[in-house]
Design a protein that fits this description.
Elements lengths: L9 E4 L2 E4 L2 E8 L5 E10 L2 E20 L5 E15 L2 E14 L2 E2 L9
Antiparallel strand pairs: 1-2, 3-4, 4-5, 5-6, 6-7, 7-8
Amino acid sequence: ADGQLDSGGMILNNGEYELITECTVDSEWDEDFNQTALRAWAKTEKGEYIITGKVITLVPVRNRRQLDNGDWLHTRITEAMTEYRYEDKVGYGLSEYCDQIIDGEPVGKTIPAAR
């Protein structure tokens, strides 16, 4: 509500959780603004981590609703099965992006943590 970006999380490293103190996510997009790949950087007190992700398959979900004043809101959630890599480790999971669509483009693509 205050316009400040809040990002964080945890890294599980050798059975111990490390609090993320700084992080960014850089995304690659296709012509429909669906994520195709990502690069996450995270910093903890013990070190820095770079994790890459490559989308294998993606499902876009859309929600449109009309406000009392007649304006329409268009929300898009993309759920993507993603292959993640960190050093020599490979894992699979979801990458999920949730955006308001304004003038045909997701507003989240301009947020520093989501670029």
